[in-house]
Design goal:
The complex is a heterodimer of chains A (178) and B (452).
Chain A (H helix, E strand, L loop, with lengths): L2 E8 L3 H15 L3 E3 L5 E2 L4 E2 L4 E3 H11 L5 E7 L3 E2 L8 E3 L5 E5 L14 H19 L18 H6 L6 H6 L6
Helix pairs in contact in A: 1-3
Chain B lengths: L5 E5 L3 H12 L4 E5 L2 H10 L4 E5 L8 H11 L4 E6 L4 H9 L4 E4 L4 H32 E2 L2 E2 L3 H13 L6 E4 L6 H10 L8 E5 L5 H9 E2 L11 E2 L1 H4 L4 E5 L6 H13 L1 E3 L6 E3 L3 E6 L3 H6 L5 H7 L2 E4 L9 H17 L5 E2 L1 H8 L6 H15 L4 E2 L10 H5 L10 H15 L4 H8 L3 H10 L5
Parallel strand pairs in B: 1-2, 1-3, 3-4, 4-5, 8-15, 8-16, 9-12, 12-15, 17-18
Antiparallel strand pairs in B: 6-7, 10-11, 13-14
Helix pairs in contact in B: 2-3, 10-12, 13-15, 17-18, 18-19
The chains are: A alpha/beta (178), B alpha/beta (452).
């Protein structure tokens, strides 16, 4: 049976990953497990000149660790991610494929010089996790502002959008049970 | 969803190219990628993209700016975004000078790219909508190959539709260059004879005897040079339509022969005795006033009535001024492709110059004038300077005739209506042009009940 595996890319709090399981199961109607045994260090994707991790390298490492995995793989990390042409990304996913990665780095209020807000941080991480997994199910950015698949390139945009898939996006997830 | 738009990412480094493409795909765009300028050009030859993201430095082969210039040769309006990791003022200036829509330094902020793509696509959507609406609008004004938004011309379109499948003879009258042959073709191609031949014969081009054999054909040995039997245009048009252009110019003998053909629907080849029965629809056209020619005894009255079963009078261009901008734009669009000159339109001043001209040669003259202006034009838009050659001469030289049985009052009304139209209903300008007081003009508008 298909399942979603959450893989820690260190450094990251395992507890944060565990907190995502129930809401992700509710959203995608699939079993979600944290695979701490396969946790790996973000070092492998670290780019010294940029001081960030290359998200595409993280995806490649994920695929190397889980050959032939039946389901989806979502890596979660606390380090900042980038793709070469952009200054940063909140996450990256293989469209309609296996793997995705999301970073909590820029989802923390502290990153913007504000006071810490753990509740808001977790809410944002969940949104990004649902969003990146949505891409692996073939979902594209949605025009609906309330839909979690709405494109967000800043943390404000993450906050504005809702935490769930809109009816249209939910219906487009293959095999999603009602 | 943005699936209808396609984007091309050109970068020699695979990781850059693919990550950028993947990021854009999440937005729903169809994204293609090319590893070199040359590959980009090959892909561009095959299809047009909405946006081209081109890396400036590509060590092998042509660089980003050259790639952009080549893309622009294929699609002058292409939206090219130059991306570079090594920004200098010089490269930025040269990229923008060569027509880049934007110049971005990588790595760039995702929000910036997102806004940039959104902005370009918005313009593309508007352009596409604009083209679609223009086509739709043109469709409204187009009947077969004739384009007009004039009310009289619309009536002609309607009439042509109604009579296209009848067999009745049609007489098309109109000044030269008004499109008589186009109307004749429209009659043929919108009717049930469309799949049969349409044969046009210019009656003024040939001497009487030649025209006779041209129309009816000849038997072998009828005259010197008649080395074999030859079918005439009437036979060639069997089942279809024959256009007898400049019918007013034919000799009395041919008028007689033609009358017999129209009455009996049969012909004899020159020098032959065999009767040939034909099913040909006759459309005649002339720039001369056939009624006058009949009155003066130059044209047979019985033939005139035979031809004039359905009469179509095409108004000259000066009586359908509203068609000038429409036609001129269509000619510019068509000729810019034919002449290979990227001219996009006509300035206000250029149009005014055209509206002020009398166009004695009608649509044909308009087409020639646009072509002449385009050949000498050095800008992207035709201006009044390109139409200098229209200055005065022909308009003044043309002898102006007062239409028959027109009263002075009707003449005054016509002058006011035409001038008002030319001045777009502006009273002050109209009064100035007509040399009358505004109050007098208001008075006349009321008196003649002229709609504004």
């Amino acid at each position: 049976m298909q399942s979603i595996k959450l893989v820690p890319v260190l450094p990251v709090s395992i507890d944060l990953l565990r907190s995502l399981c129930a809401p992700l199961e509710a959203e995608y109607r699939l079993p979600v497990r944290v695979d701490a045994a396969h946790a790996f260090d973000s070092e492998c994707a670290f780019d010294v000149s940029r001081g960030q991790c290359n998200s595409s390298v993280v995806l490649a490492e994920l695929l190397r660790l889980f050959p032939g995995h039946d389901g989806k793989l979502l890596a979660i990390t606390s380090v900042d991610l980038f793709i070469p042409v952009l200054t940063f990304v909140f996450g990256e996913a293989q469209l309609n494929d296996l793997a995705a990665v999301a970073s909590g780095c820029r989802l923390r209020e502290e990153f913007y010089g504000m006071a810490s807000d753990e509740g808001l941080f977790r809410e944002r991480v969940l949104k990004e996790a649902v969003h990146e997994l949505g891409h692996t199910f073939g979902l594209l950015h949605c025009r609906d502002f309330n839909c979690v698949m709405h494109s967000s390139t800043s943390v404000d945009e993450v906050d504005i959008k809702g935490a769930h898939l809109c009816a249209q996006c939910a219906a487009a997830v293959p095999g999603r049970r009602l | 969803m943005n699936t209808q738009w396609e984007i091309l990412v050109v970068d020699d480094e695979e990781v850059n190219r693919e990550s950028m493409a993947a990021w854009l795909r999440e937005d729903g765009y169809f994204v293609d990628s090319a590893a070199s300028g040359r590959e980009a050009l090959e892909k561009t030859q095959a299809k047009e993209y909405a946006i081209y993201f081109v890396d400036l430095k590509m060590p092998k082969g042509i660089d980003g700016i050259e790639t952009m210039m080549e893309i622009k040769k294929i699609y002058p309006d292409a939206s090219v975004v130059i991306i570079t990791a090594y920004a200098t003022v010089d490269t930025a200036i040269s990229a923008m000078k060569e027509g880049a829509i934007e110049y971005i330094v990588k790595p760039c902020n995702p929000q910036e790219i997102s806004l940039l793509v959104g902005r370009i696509i918005k313009v593309k959507n508007l352009e596409r909508e604009n083209t679609m609406l223009r086509k739709k609008l043109l469709g409204q004004y187009q009947f077969q190959d004739i384009i007009s938004k004039n009310a009289k011309m619309m009536e002609i379109f309607q009439l042509v539709k109604e009579i296209s499948s009848m067999r009745s003879t049609v007489l098309i009258q109109g000044e030269s260059g008004t499109g008589k042959e186009l109307v004749a073709r429209a009659i043929h191609y919108s009717g049930d004879r469309a799949d049969k031949p349409f044969i046009a014969v210019s009656c003024s081009a040939l001497a009487e005897t030649l025209l006779e054999s041209e129309l009816f054909g000849h038997e072998k040995g009828t005259f010197t040079g008649a080395i074999s039997q030859k079918p005439g245009k009437f036979e060639m048009a069997d089942g279809g339509t024959i256009l007898l252009d400049e019918i007013g110019d034919i000799s009395p003998k041919l008028q007689m022969d033609l009358l017999r053909v129209l009455q009996e629907k049969k012909i004899y080849r020159v020098g032959g005795s065999e009767e040939i029965t034909l099913d040909v629809r006759v459309v005649a056209a002339t720039h001369v006033n056939l009624e006058d020619a009949v009155r003066q005894g130059r044209f047979r009255e019985d033939l005139f009535y035979r031809l004039n079963v359905i009469n179509i009078h095409i108004p000259p261009l000066r009586e359908r001024m509203e068609d000038i901008p429409l036609l001129a734009r269509i000619f510019v669009e068509r000729l810019s492709h034919e002449l290979g000159k990227p001219i996009t339109g006509i300035s206000e001043g250029g149009l005014k110059k055209m509206m002020d001209y009398g166009w004695p040669g009608n649509v044909r003259e308009l087409e020639n004038a646009v072509e002449r202006a385009m050949v000498t034009c050095r800008e992207h838009v035709l201006t009044e300077n390109d139409f200098q050659f229209l200055n005065g001469a022909k308009k003044d030289a043309q002898e102006w005739e007062i239409p028959q049985s027109m009263t002075l009052e009707e003449l005054e009304r016509q002058a006011i209506v035409t001038t008002l139209r030319r001045c777009n209903g502006n009273i002050k300008e109209t009064a100035l042009k007509l040399g009358m007081d505004r109050s007098t003009l208001y008075d006349r508008i009321k008196k003649f009940n002229i709609p504004r």
